[in-house]
Amino acid sequence: MKKEHNITLKGISASSGIVIGKVFLLKNDDFxxxxxxxxxxxxxxxxxxxxxxxxxxxRAEMQELRSKINRTLGANYAKIAEVHFLxxxxxxxxxxxxxxxxxxxxxEYAVDKFxxxxxxxxxxxxDEYFRERVADIKEVSKKIIDxxxxxxxxxxxxxxxxxxxxxxxxxxxxxxxxVMKEKFVLGFVTDMGGxxxxxxxxxxxxxxxxxxxxxSITSNVEPNEEIILDGNAGLVILNPDKEVIxxxxxxxxxLDKATEELDKIKNMSATTVDxxxxxxxANIENPNETNLVLSxxxxxxxxxxxxxxxxxxxDIPSENVHYEAYVKVVESMNGLPTVIRTxxxxxxxxxxxxxxxxxxxxxxxxxxxxxxxxxxxxxxxIDQLRGILRASAKGKINLLYPMVSCVDxxxxxxxxxxxxxxxxxxxxxxFDEDIKVGIMIEVPSAALISDILAKKVDFFSIGTNDLIxxxxxxxxxxxxxxxxxxxxxxxxxRLLKMIIDNGHKAGIKVAMCGEMAGSPFYTPILxxxxxxxxxxxxxxxxxxxxxxxxxxxxxxxxxxxxxxxCDDSSQIxxxxxxxxxxxxxx
Length: 586
Prior knowledge:
Mean pLDDT: 84
Radius of gyration: 25 Å
Strand order of the largest sheet: 1-8-7-3-4-5-6-2
Structural class: alpha/beta
Strand content: 5-15%
Largest sheet: 8 strands, mixed
Distance between the termini: 53 Å
CATH superfamily of the domain at 261-274 and 451-532 and 553-586: Phosphoenolpyruvate-binding domains
Number of helices: 24
Shape: globular
Helix content: 40-55%
Number of strands: 16
């Protein structure tokens, strides 16, 4: 049966760019054990050796990946492989797998069972970053299982792909992504994945357009079928007709011109046409991203996520572990500020890692997490604060508390901070006595008392991801209610206006580090609402800067006044779509 023309599938944009090409369908060969095979006591020692040999071989493959990425993209990107090394060395994994083997399980079944248990807990996590670590865990597990069952790596298939193809697969590893670049693959599309997966990060670094999270694209295409991959909009168009192909060819020409313009403005200030200046900072989660931050001429780091320090370990990270991670970043930032957010994990995650041992909560998203967890277990908080304060003697650091919901929590956190400062003074350990302290405004209660909180802190940073989903009572990763997660809902915009105005009345700056800040579509309205700082993913910095340099601040203020009078988000969206930008971006 002849396929319909211009079938459009919506996914997640993982790497920008538009390409037109033929499908190279990479079949999924994930290990799928159907039942546990019992092995007798006499064969278990041999099974343990099989597992250990598989770990050894997987480690060698990871070393090859690190070298390949290092040659292609440099040392910063090569650090991605370090996460996989840490997982391979994870004592918890080794312990659990060996326990299962010594209880009679085959090694491949034990590895797969351990992986599924970990994945099950991470897939319900509200933070996209943690959900996307699922791909890393599965990749490491697959490496081990491939070695156990003697399966050849799919990279062999990619070696013979030929040029100018668009790879369509269930999922892809960073190693496979690098191979695709070497073989001049145009782009890739996957069923699984998200924006912050390591494969997406590598694709961004290599400049390979990619759309992920399409769920079932592998079931809807045929080898050598022509498709259009729109990495800017997160779209894939199957069987495009001549008219659509020509439209996208013109769009590609326009993008080439736009890329040249973005390169020109990277080192320019984020100043509107009428002279209003704002700051654009970067969000990072890895200490090795600072070179990229500096190359984009960011005003600093607006959000340094510290949660990675707590992963793949069975103990509480020491003060020195914290210090070494932070000092590496601040020393390389050449005096530019780094905003370090304290632990923003739930107790359930630390329990799963054997760092804590807590009862399972029925609703962990609204349970013991972030600042609440730190205040209940001050030893965790104190070690991190000591590491942060010690590092503040080596560079400019601002401290950020997450998920503050009331004045009592802020006061309690500051009490701990003051005690840590007193202890460091007694020990003659230097730190920045004037370190600035801010809070994340991501809970509706904090937004509603932001006038009170603003008098007690040095700055606000709005976390729109949680603020929107808590305000709308809509889990943004739940497909049944995700449509209710709407940054342009009048209630959300009114909350943002309230927070920004209350911050300014108290004489403090207001930043935003959520996904809304990194979307060029929302930049005009955020400017009009009075936002002082945009903290965004590194790749978005020049795009946001271009929008800011293309608009008039006074007009954006009038725009925000108009928008705040609207009854529904559809009206607001139409107003934003009608904005006319200045052609002069220089």
